[in-house]
Write the structure tokens for this entry.
Amino acid sequence: YFADMSPEKMDRKLLQLAGETGIQLSGVETGETKEMDTAGYVYTPLTLEFVCTDREQAAGFVEKINQEGAGAYYTAEYNAAVKSLQLEKDETAMKGTMEVVYCHDQ
């Protein structure tokens, strides 16, 4: 859970975490913010596109996001802070897409 966490602040936080793990973000798309069961709180899904060197680097990024922990929204629909992760190798690096869900004040 994050107090006063706007989508713009979430973008900056994810950019910071990417930098800490050497991940290069190539795109961040903010989804529609929806209400949670608890009054006054909402969750926002984010889709990240990134470039990394290998699976271990991507795993480190996932771990950093999950360490933010309190910001993760857990429901039957979203059972982890990182909802999905897809990686594909091209000629020079690995490209990935990740869905992250953050819970914050309304």
Q: What stands out?
A: The chain has a mean pLDDT of 80. Helices lie at 7-21, 55-67.
